[in-house]
User: Fold these one by one.
Assistant:
Number 1:
Amino acid sequence: MAASEWDDRRIFQPHASRVLGAGEIDGVRSHVWMGGAHSDLGEPISGEMLARSWVLDCAGYMPEAHRGAAARWEAQVFADVARRPEQFELLRSLTKDWARQIMDPREEAPEHVLVMCQYGMNRSGLGAGLLLCALGLGPGEAVSRITRARPGALANYRFRQLLSEAGFARR
């Protein structure tokens, strides 16, 4: 196999980076990841991992096989532009609901939550940031975790601002 063929296959295999480990916040029972369908940053996402994961798709680029393999799949597709996404309240509500389920010991929680977009930088950063805030982190800590895991992420400063405006109470 030529080097360029290998590079093409690696680039088009979805990858994600962990931004929060299960147990890092009291009561959080799932690992939280963010990544991209066309990213080579982070860990490759396997079918085995997906079977134990909830996936929030913020761009609509994930391969069909990955969608079918996930334990739960939710699409909230929006553009990576410097404005509030039209479905922001739906995204905020979904992440708040998932956080409640992840922290409630009476609810079934996934081993992993994957927040995905095309390259794993801005849209997934907003979605992952909202989930981290709903789990109890402040907006600054959420952004810090995201940018440490995926350098260059959340370059869309409007998305960073939306995390501060989301109104989640810190635990």
Number 2:
Amino acid sequence: MKSKAIALPQDHGQARRLFMAGFAMLTLAVLFVLGQVSAVQAQERPATFADLAEQISPSVVNITTSTVIAGRTGPGDLLPEGSPFEDFFNDLDRGPGSGAQRSSALGSGFVISADGYIVTNNHVIEDADEILIEFFPGGEEGVPAELIGTDPNTDIAVLKVDL
């Protein structure tokens, strides 16, 4: 007995067309979903700079620092003995404000985490004895802040307040 091969006609063209149609539908579905995500993201952006400022204002803080500075020292040894100005400058050195004084400075920063970490510039808090934070929109007294760390090279400082 001889075997005979039966040849069935194969239509590769139709299978290919079905595959391409399915691929095209999948691509369109993915593009549709991505388009919807992009549209939602575009709607979340503030329309104006004022809207943006209103949105982020609660994270901006005012920083007040105070530092004790030494009193005036006057020219002292710079004047020759017996100079007519010697008595004048000695009287100034003994006058009001001749002792240590407290100096205040202002700056700003922003809250970077919900647990009270704040970033500011190092020069704002450098050498400060006391650091107080005022939150937007204000109205309450400053909250004491703890200095966590500084980097003078990049002029960055991190503070922490108890919320």
Number 3:
Amino acid sequence: MSHEGTPWGGIGGIRRLADGYRGLRRTGEAIDARFRGWERRHGHRALRYSLAFVFFWFGITKPLAISPADAVVRPTLAATPILNELVSFQLFFGILGWWEALVGLGLLWRRTVRLAVACMCVQMAATFAPLFVIPGEAFRWWAPRPVGDRLLYRQELRARDRGTRRRHARFGAAVREASSGARSPGIGR
């Protein structure tokens, strides 16, 4: 039976199509391998710089009085009587903004990353405070309101950063073990 009249040109056409697919697949795998290599070399730094930009941007808008976080911080501070008596809103909001901006700047240099992450942990506690101090503003029933949604999104950004760091650390350990000849239980499953 001859397939010469078919769109694929018979058996030879099918073979050419399969060879073309294999070539395309090899090209895709080569591009993917190059991207993964770039990501291994530069991904951590790119993530750190993007997180630094976000922190600096969110932080610097507070002292400039153009931050939408005013709507969250003001009621949270008002609902915390001890803190409200000790410091004015303007001073607290300014300190919070400069703190975040300094965390962003600290993430730019490898020498200051540990200090920046420690400061970020303190800031994370302050970011979570409205969820507990003014839960009615953050949630309605089970769904987050815009305030709660924004707070949870910021926590997600930080969690992604931590997860990427752990994944890179595991991958680096697996590569070191593989290059030393030992077999890692996580590779090749």
Number 4:
Amino acid sequence: MAKGLCRTWHSGFRLGMALEKAKHLWRKKPLIGTLLVWTLILGCADYERFRTDEEHVFRGTVIGEGAASFIRRGFPAGSRMELEFDPNAIGQPVVGAFRVISPDGSMFIGQTPLESVAALAHDALSELVIPGASRMRTFLLLGRPGMGRLAGREVVVFVTLLKDGGIEVRVLAGTGDESRGDVFGVFRLFRERR
């Protein structure tokens, strides 16, 4: 039950709603209610370490080296991503921002807000899980770059929280067909000082 309440909170509802459910249960069964509140406090706070602030950001490079890579399409090898993210804002219009810088220093994707997809709050896709023991949770988000190579296009962004405190970000524009200017890339990010 606590896991479901925690999931509800991270699907865009406030922790207050989950605590109200725990409070209601506490009135009927104080011991279970108390355990549930502590589970929510300790378990739900687990995503806090993925929130960026004025001093920290997530950075990393695209996976897949060499000229041709089956996992990297359209992104030059060595492209770097910088991600600002607040998992507690899921369900709000904007939950962060990202940008991708090419190895030559040019802006491949300019600073782009990460938008929640409102319809997902009540859909099975909000519970998307990418297989792998190291992955905790994946969020499906949308970006509309205003600068860079993908300016004017919509990109789908999958942000996956990892148990080691890192983040995987998958960026997809189009079908991944490089001849049409589409891209697909997986970035492995780590928390760093700005």
